[in-house]
Write a structure and sequence with these properties.
With 263 residues, the chain is an alpha/beta fold. It has helices spanning 18-44, 50-67, 74-91, 95-109, 112-115, 124-133, 151-159, 172-185, 216-226; strands at 141-145, 164-169, 190-193, 206-209, 232-236, 247-249, 258-262. It has two domains: 14-92, no CATH class; 124-262, Rossmann fold (3-Layer(aba) Sandwich), CATH 3.40.50. The two termini are 21 Å apart.
């Protein structure tokens, strides 16, 4: 039986989250630009325009993000955020648009700021590689952690009627979509909503992950602590730094590789 349990060891403190660092950098950049604009106006009577201030703030935030060692994808976000905010305000869009956008983004990404795992959908090439690696001589229990829209779990469940396939997803909208797909297809696949860190890996023969580079060290620690001897950990696209995989499979048509470790 699947069981979710607290795992306090893997919780990160709020102040150490990359999103919190990024927001702090933006705030400090804003204060620097504000002070610069005030000083230059007093000394030269030159007034910094709002678009120019936004561009300057973005440049400072981008440089500071690289200096503080934030993941590389934060650089364009930090650079463009102030200018995008100014442009959006200039358009004078109805407030309801922002509410709808906020609800959609929260439903899709939910706790990405904490887990550091954006929405990464896999595809049929990845599903075929995973299917080829599953043990064929016995029923298995398989879990996809961060199952997204449920494509992999539904595909494998249809092909391997003898086995149990489970997906777990923390974001509400992808989980709801995958659960509805399972119901409509009358599939034997199961979809749980929750954080995989609370899942007991000992209940599964194969654990599949398509997460992000930032999440891989924590995943490895959890797998080593909980997975049984002989079970299989699979990761699509992202390897584990400093840990040699048992095998690497590359798709025939090119694209990300599939990494595997046997416990």
């Amino acid at each position: 039986m699947n069981r979710l349990r607290p795992n306090i060891r893997d919780r990160r403190t709020f102040v150490h989250l990359p999103a919190v660092h990024a927001a702090s950098i933006q705030l400090l950049s804003f204060l620097l630009v504000l002070g610069f604009a005030y000083g230059i106006a007093r000394l030269t009577e030159i007034h910094l325009t709002i678009p120019a201030a936004a561009l300057l703030q973005g440049a400072i935030a981008a440089v500071a993000s690289r200096w503080r060692g934030l993941p590389v994808w934060w650089t364009p976000i930090q650079a463009l955020f102030p200018a995008a905010l100014v442009a959006t305000l200039a358009l004078q869009l109805p407030p309801s648009i922002f509410l709808v956008a906020f609800v959609i983004l929260v439903g899709l990404y939910w706790s990405t700021f904490r887990t550091r795992v954006p929405f990464y959908p896999s595809g049929p090439d990845a599903w075929s590689m995973v299917e080829a690696l599953l043990p064929q001589d016995r029923p298995i229990r398989f879990v996809d952690i961060g199952s997204g829209l449920g494509g992999l779990v539904l595909d494998l469940s249809q092909k391997r009627k003898d086995s149990a396939f489970v997906g777990i997803e923390v974001a509400p909208f992808p989980w709801l979509f995958s659960w509805l797909r399972s119901c409509l297809k009358r599939s034997g696949a199961r979809f749980l909503r929750g954080d995989y860190q609370r899942l007991d890996f000992a209940a599964y023969d194969v654990v599949f992950a398509y997460l992000s580079p930032a999440a891989m060290p924590e995943l490895w620690r959890k797998a080593r602590a909980e997975m049984r001897s002989g079970t299989l950990l699979l990761s699509y696209e992202f390897d584990i730094q400093g840990v040699q995989p048992r095998f690497i499979r590359a798709p025939v048509n090119g694209g990300p590789a599939l990494y595997g470790w046997q416990m």
